[in-house]
Design a protein that fits this description.
The complex is a heterodimer of chains A (179) and B (307). Chain A is globular, with a radius of gyration of 16 Å. In chain A, the strands form 2 sheets. A 5-stranded parallel sheet of chain A has the order 3-2-4-5-6. Chain A has a 3-stranded antiparallel sheet with strand order 1-8-7. Chain A has 4 helices and 8 strands, in the order E-H-E-H-E-E-H-E-E-E-H-E. In chain A, helix 1 (7-24) packs across helix 2 (40-55). Chain A starts with a strand and ends in a 7-residue tail after the last strand. Chain A is 27% helix and 26% strand. By secondary structure, chain B is α/β, with parallel strands linked by helices. Chain B has helices at residues 12-29, 54-65, 86-95, 110-117, 133-147, 165-176, 205-209, 223-226, 233-240, 244-247, 270-273, 280-299, and strands spanning 43-48, 69-74, 100-105, 122-127, 154-158, 180-184, 199-202, 214-217, 255-257. Chain B has a 5-stranded parallel sheet. In chain B, strands 2-1-3-4 form a 4-stranded parallel sheet, with helices on both faces. Classes of the chains: A alpha/beta (179), B alpha/beta (307). Chains A and B meet through loops of A and helix 1 of B.
């Protein structure tokens, strides 16, 4: 197991993403964050907090569960779905989706489908802590904490304080043929 | 979990998981666009051998909100009238490619026999006087939303317990989650077989309702009068009807439930049914969410394999 990001590196990456979001959108008007459950949610909260420190107002953070929009539900174990909640309507807003890892792109595809069922955002952007490559769909992130090439057999583990008790990103090598 | 035949078969954990799922799916029912693609390409048949508007519509909408295709099959306009047995009907429907069967039948135990016969999940939508598990789940969900938890609540189930599949499902569900259940009703409509741990039986309405956090008012079926179980509907109301005055025997924050359809002025008075303690319309909305949860649980994913 190798550590890709420690707690400090993670914090800096999220602060940088926050600044990039504000810069690219020229402020925070109409900006709404939506975290993809589960670890995307605390990451979205932290980015929103950083934005609040520099801009004086904290954009709202919605929670999105993509369980109902997966394309592989029949091939996966039963997974409980949790509530999707937005604090404000997303119509006409700049929605920044936040997730921990960008891999095949299928989660983001599902998240975009889910968002569009709630309204018509003006723009959807994507922020991820780690981009590990191996896309299966034409999807890219607008904001990336760390890009890192990986083998398909490897696993990226993102640990966040709110869920796991510590902040760390690990690269776990798995034996060939391992699931 | 392969089928949903009754709450008696489920553990507290399985019930809690279904309620959590239903609570999450409730959000879909409240959306402006009530549609998620989850069960796209799946077909569900509603096989109803007893008249039902509410439960069938609720199952139908639950399937549709999850993007499943639905066919409705009613026992009174079908091959059953031409002499086909229910088993042949069900096997033919699954041969058509149906992925789940929702069944209501006047005879207790039919859903279980269908489940043994068919390879697809079977959901009991009410069988005889046995169980009506999705009604039990929606009652639990409604109470959990009001009270936060089920454990430790005092629940009074009032009326024709003997003939009520709702009473049985409620009893099993509330007891599994740690509520104290009191069954209240006339002796002729009260089976002795329900007595047991966590269950009290009384024929005294005031005693049964005292301090109750939840009062589930059962529908009194008019045909019970002809059957000699009750002298008359007027007399039933006189002794067992839930009136505003009698509701004061319960806890001040009591939640009043009724599985519907209601006989206003018989088992429940209009001012109670339309009053602030009543949650009958939440029950109906929650019913759709609960049925979505059951369909998702039984059709979504290879749930019995380890992750």
């Amino acid at each position: 197991m190798a550590i890709l990001l420690d707690a400090d590196a993670m914090r800096r990456a999220l602060v940088r993403i926050a600044h990039q979001i504000v810069e690219k959108n020229q402020g925070i008007d109409d900006l709404v964050f939506v975290g993809i459950r589960r670890r995307g949610v605390p990451l979205a909260e932290r980015i929103a907090q950083s934005v609040a420190l520099s801009e004086g107002r904290r954009p709202s953070v919605g929670v999105l569960d993509i369980g109902l929009y997966r394309d592989d539900w029949a091939r996966r174990p039963f997974a409980p779905v949790e509530a999707t909640t937005f604090r404000e309507p997303i119509d006409g807003k700049i929605v920044v989706l936040v997730d921990d890892v960008l891999f095949t792109g299928r989660t983001v595809r599902a998240a975009i489908d889910a968002l569009l069922d709630f309204g018509r955002p003006r723009v959807i952007q994507l922020a991820v802590l780690v981009d590990r490559g191996h896309r299966e769909l034409p999807i890219r992130a607008d904001y990336v904490g760390k890009s890192t090439p990986t083998a398909r057999s490897e696993k990226i583990r993102v640990l966040v304080r709110e869920v796991d008790g510590l902040d760390q990103v690990e690269l776990v090598k798995r034996p060939e043929g391992g699931a | 979990m392969q089928d949903l035949l009754g709450l008696e078969d489920l553990t507290a954990r399985e019930i809690d998981e279904l309620l959590d799922l239903a609570q999450a799916l409730r959000e879909v029912v409240d959306r402006p666009i009530k549609k998620v693609p989850t069960l796209r390409g799946r077909a569900v048949v509603n096989l109803f051998f007893e008249p039902s508007t509410r439960t069938r519509s609720s199952f139908e909408l639950a399937s549709k909100y999850l993007s499943a295709d639905v066919i409705n099959f009613s026992g009174s306009h079908s091959s059953v009238q031409k002499g086909e047995t229910i088993w042949d009907t069900a096997q033919n429907l699954t041969a058509l490619g149906v992925d789940a069967v929702v069944v209501r039948h006047g005879t207790s135990g039919v859903p279980r026999q269908l489940a043994d016969l068919l390879r697809v999940p079977v959901i009991n939508a009410g069988d005889g006087s046995h169980e009506h598990p999705t009604q039990g789940l929606l009652d639990l969900l409604t109470v959990r939303q009001c009270k936060g938890t089920i454990s430790g609540l005092k629940v009074a189930i009032v009326g024709d317990v003997l003939h009520s599949r709702v009473a049985r499902s409620d009893l099993f569900g509330f007891r599994a989650l740690g509520a104290e259940v009191t069954l209240v009703g006339p002796p002729a409509l009260m089976p002795d077989s329900f007595a047991g741990p966590g269950v009290r039986i009384t024929h005294n309405l005031a005693e049964g309702m005292r301090g109750a956090d939840v009062v589930q008012v059962l529908r009194i079926q008019r045909e019970r009068q002809a059957g000699g179980y009750i002298p008359s509907l007027e007399e039933y109301r006189e002794r067992w009807g839930i009136t505003r005055h009698r509701l004061q025997w319960a806890d001040a924050d009591v939640v009043v439930l009724h599985p519907g359809p209601q006989n206003r002025g018989v088992e429940i008075d209009s001012d109670v049914l339309d009053g602030e303690s009543s949650r009958v319309l939440s029950q109906v909305t929650n019913g759709v969410a609960v049925r979505m949860a059951v369909l998702y649980r039984l059709l979504g994913g290879t749930y019995d394999e380890p992750r």
